[in-house]
Specification:
Length: 217
């Protein structure tokens, strides 16, 4: 899942991003509304975690822009105000969900995951294919009943492949969905991660390399 965190309190923004990355999400971070509009115009995000009170460009205007573009991106709006009127106003602007500060990180994560599920074709909460069961919410993976421990990026790559339901996923698509914008696209990070993932999943191999195209399960 690709997430953009937009928050002018840098310590909070970085803490949220770090926590979401530990949940196997690819996260970009910006600290003002102008930078958010720039990123949204370049990258495809599943969810934008958007502070309402932003410098340069207000969060309301960022939310309006996402709606105007007709993007499948979902918006989780944050605010220091807990007034019902503020929450209603934010939702009427086009936000998909609203979370007042301070918030519990576990709740933020659950809301981001729930919104992320709404950006794609509905799938069951537990993904199953080729003897593999992947539970995105519990961060658990089993193959033929055996639990497999995966690093966050390995889990993210496997989730993208599982969600493709047998379709080929290119290395570029994996980079877009499982890594943030700071990753050098010319590195072999995708190939190395897929190799490690294959090894951990065991025999017989379930991840197939399609020469010149990408990978599939």
């Amino acid at each position: 899942m690709r997430v953009l965190v937009v928050e002018d309190e840098q310590l909070l923004a970085d803490a949220v991003a770090t926590g979401l990355r530990r949940e196997a999400m690819a996260v970009d971070v910006v600290y003002d509304g102008a930078a958010a509009l720039e990123r949204i115009g370049v990258n495809d995000y599943d969810v934008v975690v958007l502070d309402r009170d932003l410098p340069l460009v207000h969060g309301d205007d960022v939310c309006r822009r996402v709606v105007e573009l007709g993007m499948p991106t979902r918006v989780l709006m944050l605010t220091a105000s807990g007034d019902v009127s503020d929450r209603v106003e934010g939702l009427e602007l086009g936000a998909d969900d609203y979370l007042p500060k301070p918030f519990a990180f576990t709740e933020l994560t659950a809301r981001v995951r729930a919104l992320g599920r709404r950006t794609t074709v509905p799938l069951p909460p537990v993904l199953e294919r080729a003897g593999i069961k992947l539970d995105p919410n519990r961060r658990e993976v089993f193959r033929d009943g055996r639990e497999i421990q995966l690093a966050p990026k390995e889990f993210a790559v496997l989730e993208v492949l599982m969600r493709s339901e047998g379709a080929v996923v290119s290395a570029e698509q994996l980079l877009e969905k499982a890594w943030d914008e700071n990753t050098d696209p010319f590195t072999n990070v995708v190939r190395v991660t897929v190799m490690t993932l294959r090894r951990k999943l065991g025999e017989p191999p379930v991840i197939v390399t399609v020469p010149g195209s990408g990978y599939r399960i």
